Amino acid sequence: MHSSTLRPLALVAVIITTASAHITMENPVPYGSPDSNPLLPDGSDFPCKQSEDVYKVVKQNIMPIGQPQTLSFIGQATHGGGSCQISLTTDKEPTKDSVWKVIESIEGGCPSNHPGNLGDDPAGRGTEKYNFSIPSMIPPGDYTLAWTWFNKIGNREMYMNCAPVTVTGGTQRLKRFTHHGRRHVHGAPASKRAEAMASLPDMFVANIGTGCATAESGTTLAIPKSNIGTYVKHG
Q1: Closest CA to 215 of 206, 202, 226
Q2: Residue 14: is its pLDDT beyond 70?
Q3: Model confidence over 37-48: pLDDT tens digits?
Q4: First to last CA, the chain
Q5: What is the pTM of this model?
């Protein structure tokens, strides 16, 4: 085979590799072996990128209420950053009907403030790490945690990885907080915590055939007020 034939084939291989080498959530440890591609445009693999082993538990992530946790990633195709959310559902094997409640929003600069891609190494490093914690209104128990990401540059996409989580602790008195203009006061009982969790905003969903789409490439998503929540970081 002539070298002139090898060069185009090699170029195609590089393009394919780069195109599929986005980023995945490293911590919390996700279910199974998630790929780094976005959710399908028609939403058929929502939530959690449905596949045969989508809910295979590799590690149960233990998260005491109020204790610092780390959100970190593998990969370098960061598409100029964007906006991310961390959400919880009580469903251990979520479906399209699952209810996701936002516990943290990161508006801008997630997973990186770099103006383009950090590189093309799917196992590369360099993305930001974020601290978060389980709010005091979350009842102890088993959950599925989701990291969702809306990229700044490129096709209008939604990325999503999920992880199994056990929330522990929470015997301390809950804090007062205001949400949607209403004042909440919660004590230790689980029923009060469940009520408080229900008042958290729903996870923002777009670009997967729901009729909602994010703004054109180059625009950082301003998470809607109805979805952003109380716990917000700005990149």
Answers
A1: 206
A2: no
A3: 999 999 999 999
A4: 50
A5: 0.84
Residue 73 DSSP code: E
Listing DSSP states for 173-215 in one string gives: PPPPEEETTEEE---S-HHHHHHHHHTSPBPP--SSSSS--PP
Kindly state the helix (H) or strand (E) to which residue 7 belongs, with its residue range: helix 3-20
Question: Which residue, 128, 126, 93, is CA-closest to 110?
Answer: 128
* Token pair listed for 11: 């170029």
Task: Give the C-alpha separation, 82 to 61, whole Å.
Answer: 26
